[in-house]
Write a structure and sequence with these properties.
heterodimer; A: 582 residues; alpha/beta; 6-stranded parallel β-sheet; 20 strands; B: 171 residues
Chain lengths: 582, 171
């Protein structure tokens, strides 16, 4: 019989057994026993954030950049409710994360005790699964099961709520063996008959496209390699969702750029005119499809996804294959080679695609007096891409410009809030990514509005000597809101101006960061060089053109081929049907 | 602007789940969160060691929605198996109701006569009232309740539907 130890110690033991090296958290009354246990050990490093939401985004950044699950520790009540945004973010973007929340003692549950909240009730809908642990005897197994669920199948957040008396009470702990869950059995391998059918469809297609997504990143680096092989042997063009950027190299000949609302002209037209779409670890999100009844009208669709509920959710597909996209692609390549298929003659298709490419849809009006935000992202890419940096973003125009103009060559380098669209994600995510990759260059491309949503995390980076860089594209507007108001509401700028902005340089300096301001195009290169030369955290306030808009754009309610390419094609008022769409 | 809706079908689903705290809230919550309908939901454990519960859900939606309901249930961690009995074909559905009727004289005799027709049992009686237990398809119970309104219906309690596929196989 193993020796009895406190629930708090059991938690630490279990986390160590699971290989956890770092947790992001914030102490409080209901987790004091766990914090005391943390104090008395050296195996797990605790990173003290300044707000619980930031702990969750930091854990997401860590997870996305390393492939390991992110771990969060917060107290009951406000600690748990503050974590809800990040938990929901992780659910939407399928990020493996385990959140430990303190809870009031079991006999106080339901009595409206101090800092009590119904954490399992509140997080039931924003987690993959959650637990309330009622005895220290079950704690160890629950922690191991939580990690199993968070990291397998379609990854996601799991909350484990631990009442304070369970942290204090004692029980024996033994590391469990392989978890054989009674009901949770995700399907990893795809049905080989369906895979063979997919290969035949791909071999026969005249106008195929590979539509890739975040599932490939989640499957692991091997899946990105096998995607490259699949693209090479089939010769098919490749596009990606926001979440999948980096799975296929942006420098590859078959790369069309991102698709969807702010995707390239060639990616969206190729989707629209294709005779076969192979969806690999993506989910036909509304940002990707545009108007559903006009989405890819000529295409047969193959959908490969580990989550059965993603099949036929918004778009009916001809061939759904449930399985890990990496494994399924591997089998597809094997079958393709075994059947000695050769690359089909897709020259007519590529000729057509090259015509769409010639539109140069990512071009923008140049300026000699102002810094165009797109030019700022390009300058940042020019100066840093050889270092293979990790880029995080906030949410809005800057995020889309970063997706369009920063070119990714490998997975796990692009960290952004895709599904939930959470402003304030970028800085804590950069902190998490830097902790997982101490020697990497980590840059948060931010907007002046978003960055203020978790600005307190400047202190976290300072405390742990993390040399993260923040590059603010400051246009003094919540730019994406303003852009939609121009498109939809006759430029009535309701509350979208960023008034009373702080002096970001001085603000950074107050937290012990270096601050740099870039005001004119001729300062751009030198300002970026200065940022890169500094061995420590830097905040760059880059003043950009105030009313630049993000194009191409598929307006809400429109189809892929109704893309807007430039400002002069829009303005005014949309009808109610379009106004009702997000 | 008007909100459009497609043609709806009614499906009966059988769901086996691990019998753990919160599992019913998890399932009912998924229906509300995703905007699905629940017409009826029954749940009880069906194993000797109380480890597994069987839930019968009657839901309505377009065929695409029903397919999603099944998939969304199936991906939940404590769910063992989801069976769409309507899609499977032949199955039996039963519901039990307790129906309280008050009255004297002819009303009382008529109530008993109708109960016999519907094969309802008297499970409680006073000088001026009966409680009937009636089992059957929901439509049968609807009809029985409708008739009792004329006689002196006081209140009704219904279990909701339980269902099972015909034939020798388990789901």
């Amino acid at each position: 019989m193993p020796k009895e130890q406190s629930g708090a110690n059991i938690l630490i033991e279990a986390l160590s057994d699971l290989g956890v090296e770092v947790i992001f958290g914030y102490p409080g009354g209901a987790v004091l026993p766990i914090y005391d246990a943390l104090f008395q050990q050296k195996r797990i490093r605790h990173i003290l954030v300044r707000h619980e939401q930031a702990a969750t985004h930091a854990a997401e950044g860590y997870a996305r950049a390393t492939g390991k699950p992110g771990v969060v520790l917060v107290t009951s009540g406000p600690g748990a409710t503050n974590a809800v945004t990040g938990i929901t973010d992780a659910l939407m973007d399928s990020i493996p994360m385990v959140v430990i929340t303190g809870q009031v003692a079991t006999h106080l549950i339901g009595s409206d005790a101090f800092q009590e909240a119904d954490t399992v009730g509140i997080t039931r809908h924003c987690t993959k699964h959650n637990y309330l642990v009622k005895s220290p005897e079950t704690l160890g197994n629950v922690i191991h099961e939580a990690f199993h669920i968070a990291t397998t199948g379609r990854p996601g957040p799991v909350v484990v709520d631990i009442p304070k008396d369970v942290q204090v009470a004692t029980a024996p702990y033994k590391k469990p063996g392989t978890i054989n869950h009674a009901s949770y059995r995700p399907q990893v391998k795809g049905d080989i008959k369906l895979i063979e059918a997919a290969v035949e469809m791909l071999a026969a297609a005249e106008r195929p496209i590979l539509y890739t997504g975040g599932g490939i990143i989640n499957s692991g680096p091997a899946a990105s390699q096998i995607l490259r092989e699949l693209a090479r042997i089939t010769g098919a063009p490749v596009t990606s969702t926001l979440m999948g950027l980096g799975a296929y190299p942006a420098s590859g000949d078959q790369w069309l750029g991102m698709l969807g609302m702010h995707g390239t002209y060639e990616a969206n037209w190729t989707m629209n005119q294709a005779d076969l779409i192979v969806c690999l670890g993506a989910r036909f999100d509304d940002r990707v499809t545009g108007r559903l009844d006009a989405f890819a009208p000529k295409a047969k669709k193959i959908h490969i996804d580990i989550d059965r509920s993603s099949m036929n959710k918004t778009v009916r597909v001809d061939l759904p294959i449930v399985g890990d996209v990496g494994h399924v692609m591997e089998d597809m390549v094997k079958v393709w080679k075994a059947r000695q298929h050769t690359k089909a003659d897709l020259s007519a298709w590529w000729k057509q695609i090259d015509e769409w490419r010639a539109k140069k849809s990512l071009s923008y009006p140049p300026s000699t007096t102002e810094i165009m935000p797109q030019a700022a992202v390009q300058a940042l890419w020019n100066a840093t891409h050889k270092k293979n940096p990790i880029i995080t973003t906030e949410v809005g125009q800057h995020q889309m410009w970063a997706a369009q103009h920063f070119h990714f060559e490998s997975p796990n380098k692009w960290l952004t809030s895709g599904g939930l669209g959470t402003m304030g994600y970028g800085l804590p995510a950069a902190i998490g990514a830097q902790l997982g990759n101490p020697n990497a260059l980590v840059i948060d491309i931010a907007g002046e509005a978003s960055i203020q949503m978790n600005i307190q995390e400047l202190a976290t980076a300072t405390q742990y000597r993390l040399p993260v860089k923040i590059f603010i594209l400051n246009n003094e507007y919540m730019g994406m809101v303003r852009q939609w108001q121009e498109l939809t509401y006759s430029s009535r700028y309701s509350e979208s101006y960023s008034d009373a902005l702080p002096d970001f340089v001085k603000l950074g300096e107050a937290y012990g960061w270096k601050g740099i301001r870039i005001e004119t195009p001729d300062q751009l290169e030198s300002g970026i060089a200065e940022m890169l030369a500094y061995d420590g955290p830097v905040i760059v306030d880059c003043l950009v053109a105030k009313v630049a808009n993000c194009f191409p754009m598929i307006p809400s309610g429109a189809s892929h081929v109704e893309m807007i390419l430039a400002d002069d094609q829009v303005s005014g008022e949309l009808d109610d049907e379009a106004k009702a769409l997000v | 602007m008007h909100i459009k809706e497609g043609l709806k079908e009614r499906h009966t689903l059988s769901v086996t789940v691990t019998n753990e705290p919160g599992v019913l809230a998890r399932i009912a919550g998924m229906f509300t969160a995703r905007g699905y309908n629940i017409e009826s939901l029954t749940v009880a454990d069906i194993t000797e060691d109380d480890s597994i519960s069987r839930i019968t859900i009657v839901t309505t939606g377009t065929p695409a929605v029903i397919e999603q309901v099944v998939a969304q249930l199936d991906r939940m961690v404590p769910v063992h198996k989801v069976t769409d009995l309507t899609l499977l074909g032949d199955h039996v559905e039963r519901e039990l109701a307790l129906v309280k009727v008050a009255g004297t004289g002819d009303h009382r005799i008529e109530a008993l006569r109708l109960a016999e027709v519907f094969r309802a049992n008297v499970v409680d009686t006073t000088i001026s009232s009966f409680v009937f237990e009636v089992t059957g398809a929901s439509t049968k119970i609807d009809r029985f309740v409708e008739l009792m309104k004329e006689i002196g219906l006081v209140e009704v309690a219904r279990t909701g539907i339980v269902a099972m596929a015909r034939g020798k196989e388990a789901i």
